[in-house]
């Protein structure tokens, strides 16, 4: 199939070639129309398979996003780190593959940091390195029945992330005979002795281990957390430990832990714990099970490192899919996209702290044409739009999206449950669990809603992200109509087509 870039060039050449002999006709096309379900403002690879976001780090105006990638087919395989960048969180540019599998194994999930003081000595004082920590997965070892087939390794970049060199001394954290030992997420803090220290958060079977290091190369186990606490319906993966400062100046730590299977909607999901991190030990405030997103399709998400202080935010992105059916969804040349970027913060409900995921501020820049919905029915502008509304009465609301083929998507609140029904949303028959209704408990007042729709997704943010439902949908033609807007006020539609 002709690629999007090749197609644009072809159009340009035809236009240039004809311009001299006849009146030039304006050629416009929507990139999304080239390929069914290709998202307009979410990141998806040009081709091949993608799962977890990896190595998210900000440097010199670029938000880097690496990702679990198998370029050769649209199903999971020998993992690489793909690479993309964005300056505004909505226009993504895919770059060449950053890390290829090698004799030590596939390149599994991990993180990246800016080693500003060259603590690793892998760069120089004047050109400090970007350092990526990732898991090697030795497939041959796994097949031969070994248990030590996962280890942590390092790669570095001296040209701001364009090219990467694997560290000669890999692995930096060898396996100790544990099957699930992966997904290092690293950050720097100032420890109790007042010294800068790198902390690695690692998923180890059914728990999280914390390691410390002065130079990113030598790691010492500090503590572990999680056995018997939280949800344990599946293996723990892709952790992230994040500090937050509350309005009263006190500090809380949030530990994200993805789990597969065992999520609230079946399959994959991300839970979180709120507590303290002192002397390298994480202590939760309570044992309540909390979920980051009640939709079925937000997994393995973590946060960006090295954001400029003046941004004063915690920026998150997740894999917008679910291991239950991620490899079967009906896209052709590529499989999977990321969620919209989200800003994480803590808020309080009746004395309990919860995590809020608000759409990143930059998403409002996507808004072009907008119109107010004055009747109970309205047309929809394109494949990519945002609906905003206030909720009249916190108890109930309802809305439907539908298209010319009779597919529909229902978003509603009844009592304490906010729900999404995608059972009649188009192509659903590729997996028995796809056609379903997903509900999220909301025991506090619902006052507003923002709904982001792209070619193959819907993301629902109640009260700016106090409650979130993210879901894939595959309508057989784009959504054309918004109907039955009961319980909603000030309904606005924004076209997000680029
Ligand atoms: C999570 C995960 C990680 C692993 C990666 C492999 O989706 O299973 O634990 O590193 O995917 O692609």
Provide structural commentary.
The chain is mainly beta and 498 residues long. It folds into two domains: 44-359, 5 Propeller (Tachylectin-2, Chain A); 367-495, Jelly Rolls. The protein contains three helices and 34 strands. The protein has helices at 4-19, 31-34, 139-143; strands at residues 48-59, 62-70, 80-86, 92-99, 106-114, 130-137, 150-157, 165-166, 181-190, 196-204, 207-213, 220-225, 235-245, 251-260, 269-278, 281-284, 290-291, 299-303, 314-319, 334-335, 342-349, 352-359, 370-372, 377-379, 385-391, 397-402, 408-414, 417-421, 437-441, 448-454, 457-462, 467-472, 481-486, 488-495. The strands form seven sheets. It has a six-stranded antiparallel beta sheet, with no helix packed on it. Strands 24-33-26-27-28-29 form a six-stranded antiparallel beta sheet, with no helix packed on it. Strand 30 and strand 31 form a beta hairpin. The longest helix is centred in the N-terminal third of the chain and has 16 residues, at 4-19. The protein starts with a helix and ends with a strand. Residues 51-52, 68, 79, 108-109, 135, 182-183, 237-238, 300 line the site of beta-D-fructofuranose.
